[in-house]
## 1
Amino acid sequence: MNVTIKDIELLKNLDPQRIRYYLESRGWKQAQKIDDLAIIWTSGNPTSETPQIVLPLNSALPDFPLSMNLMLQTLEAIENRSQIEI
C-alpha cells in the first residue's frame, strides 16, 4: 500500500540534505544544480528517457512544500515504493 504525504508542515520540514544522501545511496546522480534553488537528479546514464527528479533546496520559498510533494510523488512512481519507505 502506498502512502502519500500531504501534511504541509511535514513537507516544509523535510531536509534536502537527507534526501540528497538517500538519492546518492540509491544510485541517483546530480545532473544540474540551479543556483541554490534546486538540483536535478537522474537515475543512471542520462538520456532523453532517463527518469529525472527535481530536489528543491530552499525551504524559505513559498512553494517548497509543493515542490517536495511533487519530488516525492515522482520518486514514488519511479521506485515503486511508498513515500513513507522513501
Note: Strands lie at 28-34, 38-43, 52-56.
## 2
Amino acid sequence: MLRDESSVYLNRYWMPPTLGEYTIEITQKGGRISRIATVELKAKQIALRIPTNTKNKELIPLAVNIAFATEKNCPEDIEPQGI
C-alpha cells in the first residue's frame, strides 16, 4: 500500500476493485499459529512510461500486470499476510 500524506487519495485512485475473496488455510510455521484466513484479490494493468531522459528512441511503454492478495479481518495480535 502507498504510505504518505496523500495515501487515501492515491489508494482510491490507484487500487483496483476487488476481483474476489478466497478462504485459505495458513499453516503453522515458527511461532505462527495455523488459522483460516480470508484473502481479498485485486489486479491491475499499468504502463511503465519511457524515461524522459533517455536518448534511445526505440523504447516503448511497457504494460505490466500487478496482482494484490491481502488478508482481510486479521486478528489484531497477528500481522496480516499479503502477497
Note: The chain has one domain: 7-72.
## 3
Amino acid sequence: MEQIKTDYRRANLDERTRAMLDYAVMITRDVHRIDQSTIDQLRARGLSDEDILNVAHVTGFFNYYTRLADALGVDPEDFMLRRRSPGMHQSSET
C-alpha cells in the first residue's frame, strides 16, 4: 500500500487498477487528451462505464477541492505534508 501512495507506477498492480490510476492522472494533468480511444482502452482493461464515471467523479471532486483550498490559501494539514513525495509542488511560503 505504501508503494501506491508514493508512486503507483512502481507498485505491483493488476492491469485494471493501473489503467484506473493512469486515467485519474490523465484527468488531473492532461484532460484534453482524453478521447473515445481512452474510454475504449479502459473498457478493454475491465472497467465498466460506471467504473469510468466513478473514477472521473472522484478525481474531479478531489481536484476541485484541492484547487479551491489553494485559491483560498488554505494550508495543508501536517499529515499531508509528511506524505508528499519529493517531486510534488510545495508553496514557497513553507
Note: Residues 49-71 form the longest helix (23 residues).
## 4
Amino acid sequence: MSAAVRVGLRVYFPLIVEESMMIEPTETESRETLDAFAEALLAIAREVEEQPEVVKVAPTTTVIGRLDEAAAARSPKLRW
C-alpha cells in the first residue's frame, strides 16, 4: 500500500470480516489525491486479473522485499 502511505490514508484490516480492508482518508485529502489512490487500486486489480504472479511476489521495487512477519514477531529488533 505504498500509495496509501504517500497520500496519508489510514488502512485497517478489520478482523470481523474475512479478507476485508477499510480505507479511511483524512479530512485534508484532496479529491485529486483520492482519485489517484482509487486509480492505483484499480491498476492493482487489473494486475491481479492479468498477471497474478506479479502481485504475489510484490513488492519488487523496494529496498526490502516481503517481510517475514513470523520471524519478526519471534525476535523483534526494537530501537528508540
Note: Residues 2-74 form one domain.
